[in-house]
Write a structure and sequence with these properties.
It contains 27 helices and 34 strands. The chain has a four-stranded parallel beta sheet with strand order 2-1-27-28, with helices on one face. By secondary structure, the chain is α+β, with helices and mostly antiparallel strands. The protein has five domains: about 170 residues, HUPs (Rossmann fold); about 170 residues, HUPs (Rossmann fold), CATH 3.40.50; about 190 residues, Alpha-Beta Complex (Isoleucyl-tRNA Synthetase, domain 2), CATH 3.90.740; about 150 residues, Isoleucyl-tRNA Synthetase, Domain 1, CATH 1.10.730; about 60 residues, Ubiquitin-like (UB roll) (Roll), CATH 3.10.20. β27, α17 and β28 form a beta-alpha-beta unit. It is globular and about 100 Å long. The chain binds one RNA strand through α7, β11, β15, α11 and β30.
RNA sequence: GCGAGAGUGGCGGAACGGCAGACGCGCAAGGCUCAGGACCUUGUGAGGGAAACUUCGUGGGGGUUCAAGUCCCCCCUCUCGCACCA
């Protein structure tokens, strides 16, 4: 842990006259060199200062390098880090690489290389580009999730989850992507396709898999959203993804099959009296047991056909509902009727119990199904206002129970509790909560990932690798191509697979699947607190100091994957007493997407990628940074437009001219006019406010505005305060040029260790104000009046001005609206 | 289908319910240049007018208000998320 001081380094750069023209290509490399030489960006732990931890989402270092689109995340975060440091914080701004996982492996396979060679090379290129862009990271804290120093702790966390009963192995039907040649988690299936391959429909595969029990945290993941400062759409996506719904789980006996029952979940137990049939998912285990001989052929064919269907077809909501009668009946224990049991693919095996009670009078899907197959449609809920329930569609709203025995007359909410109470008393069921979210499937049948630290022993079964034997090293493999059979390539490495049981010492085999890459990124933010700590994933002292992350920034595409997983792990760590906070990222912001100039996604194949390298070469890093900040609101998407970089380069040129003129004039201390002083203080006030709110585009607009003002003054009229405060505020955005100016102004230390300028509210006060004069809400005149002269004087002035007099001749006003020092509206 | 967000000049975008279009790009005119995607100055929403001025104008339609880009209702378009979750 470095504990340097905030003492400024001594530059090895002499003060020389400023060139006439601003030339970023001479300025920028020399300051980058100075920063490295003096370790300017080492994290400094100063107990006298509050800490600020700003973090970008863990990037995968792609072989394509960074584009100007990626910088729209990194540059603003860098500005925040630099601003916060100047504003008095100890700033932690680290960077590392999400290097394990499919993208790295696929890329290496494609190029016939090994990820252990490509990953460091690509990461070095990212690092070079980030440095080139003037981003200030403490590179002594660089981490890499594919390094054994790192993944031994990923494995350690796996064991922690396992010990706490949150990692388990289970068989099941899983999503398989043929292109990835591995199993995917539910979150990684989008529109029935692989999240990495939108053109590849996922299929089902039966395999034993490892899961993390994220569903055990479902309620807390929802509840704790209330206390964190995240964009509302992201919170909403998480709530919807978790999909909590309250209802009841009930069971009806299958007629003629003693001991067999259909268990089902419903959110509307109040409609049980209207249940006229039941539907099982085609994969439901009960199907074979209860299907009658007469129906067997039809049922088997339907099940086979459902299996063949792609998920896309199956999940299509526009598709007409289909199903087949099993021949069996269940006894509706409420209405006392025997009701037919059907199978249909609109019932999903993966949700609830894979079976439903159909209340066609109150559910659109059941209604459509009943209509199609001529099933009975009882009506058991009426609108609360006493009107009749519609006959041509399901009445899905809440209302009052009718035709429902002991529920008649009860409001829906009361009827729900009554059914639950009755069901519990009679052993039919109980109130329960169901979630859309499933457990997180974490095993991957691929090579380039964190090995799961588990051993299979013929006598002891599933045995976790003891902590002191970590890391389970990923073996070196030349031919690591996935087989596509559902077995990891690691299964072919005998030296890896064959091991001894940690319990009995007998021969045993290692787990050969690797962990989902999202496991690696579920705890990396902790590692940055003490990246070289060898005794634990993080030094508890450093963790207490730096965590949680004060500002987390990344794309909205991670709303239900990374952000949900990292939150779950954090809660597990909290429960285990490792950390004192429940949420890893108390404040989250999403940067807007930067599309290419043609409005499409920047991609190599489309040939529309713009690199920072090219922009720095042409305009300089500071100009590029400024355009990243100025092109629009940080959180909104926009198209790339290179002309903008030219514009911000021109702005820097103009700043150069103004500062240079001031320095050439011998830096006159100045006795600025009140107006000039006021403008300087107002600029500080506005820019500070915009920086705090991450409104970089308007912060820069304010700076440009102020420059236009300063450019009209002589150096003597400007004064040192206006120039230096301006340069200080420019420094986080244009760090190279800021440093150059600071040196040229005669300072020896780094501008980035200086304090952010402060303003005097007294000096921002205007002496005169413009009062808008309106007649009937239309602007008719503007008056320059002394500030704070009061309502009487202002309304009198407004009534006496020419424009008003002209309009008012022969009329009288009914009312005057007065907004102090702003507006007089005369209502005629 | 459900949910969320967004529609403002030629373009990117500014506007605590109170001067719509800040700031910038582009464009135009002028200056300066051997030259320039350089630099400087001025102008630049639309219509009308010689001008002072004036009318219209924030996707469309209603409404609330002294006053609406901003608040409310309906509609249209685009982007994103979820897509039979019982």
């Amino acid at each position: 842990m470095h504990s340097g001081t905030l003492n400024s380094p001594i530059w090895s750069i002499a003060i020389t006259p400023m060139d006439e023209r601003y030339d970023p290509h001479t300025i920028e490399p020399r300051w980058r060199e100075q920063w490295e030489r003096t370790d300017l960006y080492l994290t400094r732990e100063d107990p006298g200062r509050p800490k600020f931890y700003v973090l970008e989402m863990f990037p995968y270092p792609s072989g394509n390098g960074l584009s100007v689109g990626h910088l729209h995340n990194y540059v603003p975060c860098d500005v925040v880090g630099r601003y916060k440091r100047m504003a008095g914080f100890n700033v932690l701004h680290p960077m590392g690489w999400d290097a394990f996982g499919l993208p790295a492996e696929n890329d290496a396979l494609l190029k016939g290389l090994h990820p252990k060679e490509t990953v460091p090379r690509y990461a070095a290129n990212f690092k070079r580009q980030l440095k080139l862009s003037g981003c200030a990271y403490d590179w002594t804290r660089e981490i890499n999730s594919s390094s054994p120093d790192y993944y031994r702790w990923t494995q350690w966390f796996f064991l922690l989850l396992h010990r706490r009963g949150l990692a388990y192995r289970a068989p099941g039907s899983q999503w398989w992507c043929e292109k990835c040649r591995t199993i995917l988690a539910n979150e990684q299936v989008i529109n029935g396709c692989c999240w990495r391959h939108p053109d590849t429909v996922v299929t089902r595969k039966e395999l034993d898999q490892w899961y993390f029990k994220i569903t055990a945290y479902a309620d807390r993941l929802i509840e704790d959203l209330d206390g964190i400062d995240w964009p509302e759409p992201i919170k909403l996506m998480q709530r919807n993804w978790i999909g909590r719904s309250e209802g009841a789980e009930l069971a009806f006996p299958v007629s003629g099959h003693a001991g067999q029952e259909v268990r089902f979940f419903t959110t509307r137990p109040d409609t049980v009296f209207g249940v006229s049939f039941m539907v099982l998912a085609p994969e439901h285990p009960l199907v074979t047991a209860i299907t009658t001989g007469a129906q067997r052929a039809a049922v088997e064919e339907y099940v086979a056909q459902a299996r063949r269907q792609s998920e896309i077809e199956r999940l299509s909501t526009v598709k007409e509902k289909t199903g087949v009668f099993t021949g069996a009946h269940a006894r509706n224990l409420f209405s006392g009727k025997d009701i037919p049991i059907w199978i249909a693919d609109y019932v999903l095996m993966g949700y609830g119990t894979g079976a439903i009670m159909a209340a066609p009078g109150e559910d659109e899907r059941d209604f459509a199904f009943a209509k199609k197959y001529g099933l009975e449609i009882p009506i058991v809920t009426a609108p609360a206002d006493g009107s009749a329930a519609p006959a041509d569609r399901a009445f899905t709203e809440r209302g009052v129970a009718i035709n429902s025995g002991f529920l008649d007359g009860l409001k829906t909410s009361d009827a729900i509790s009554a059914v639950c109470k009755y069901a519990e008393a009679h052993g039919i069921g109980r109130p329960t909560v169901s979630y859309r979210m499933r457990d997180w499937l974490i095993s991957r049948q691929r090579y380039w990932g964190c090995p799961i630290p588990i051993v299979y022993c013929p006598t002891d079964g599933i045995v976790p690798v003891p902590e002191d034997q970590l890391p389970v090293l990923l073996p070196d493999m030349k031919d690591y191509e996935p087989s596509g059979t559902g077995r990891s390539p690691l299964a072919n490495v005998a030296e890896f697979v064959n091991t001894v049981c940690p319990k009995c010492g007998g021969p045993a085999e290692r787990e050969t699947d690797t962990l989902d890459g999202f496991a690696c990124s579920s705890w990396y933010f902790l590692r940055f607190a003490s990246p070289h700590y060898a005794a634990a994933p993080f030094d508890p002292r450093a963790g207490d100091y730096w965590l949680p992350v004060d500002l987390y920034v990344g794309g909205a595409e991670h709303a239900v994957m990374h952000l949900l997983y990292a939150r779950m792990w954090t809660k597990v760590m909290f429960d285990a007493g490792l950390i004192k906070f429940k949420e890893p990222f108390p404040a989250l912001r999403n940067q807007g997407m930067i599309w290419a100039a043609d409005g499409q996604k920047m991609s190599k194949s489309k040939g529309n990628v713009v690199t920072p390298d090219a922009m720095v070469e042409k305009y300089g890093a500071d100009a590029l940074r400024l355009w990243e900040l100025f092109m629009g609101p940080f959180e909104e998407a926009t198209n790339w437009n290179e002309d903008g970089v030219f514009g911000t380069a021109r702005y820097l040129q103009r700043v150069w001219a103004v500062v240079r003129r001031y320095i050439e004039a011998g830096c006159p201390p100045g006795d600025p006019a009140a107006e000039t002083l006021r403008r300087a203080h107002k600029t500080i006030r506005t820019v500070t406010d915009h920086m705090e709110r991450m409104r970089f585009n308007t912060a820069l607009a304010t700076m440009m505005d102020q420059l236009n003002y300063l450019a009209k003054l002589t150096p003597g009229e400007t004064g040192r305060f206006a120039i230096e405060s301006y340069v200080l505020m420019l420094a986080p955005m244009a760090p190279h040029l800021g440093e150059e100016f600071w040196r040229a102004l005669g300072h020896d230390g780094s501008i980035h260790l200086e304090s952010w300028p402060t303003f005097d509210p007294e000096l921002t006060r205007d002496e005169t104000v413009t009062v808008i004069v309106q007649v009937n809400g239309k602007v008719r005149d503007r008056l320059q009046v002394p500030a704070g002269q009061g309502e009487a004087a202002n309304t009198a002035a407004a009534l006496n001005c020419g424009a008003v007099m002209k309009l008012m001749t022969g009329k009288s006003y009914t009312k005057i609206i007065y907004v102090p020092d702003k507006l007089v509206n005369i209502v005629v």
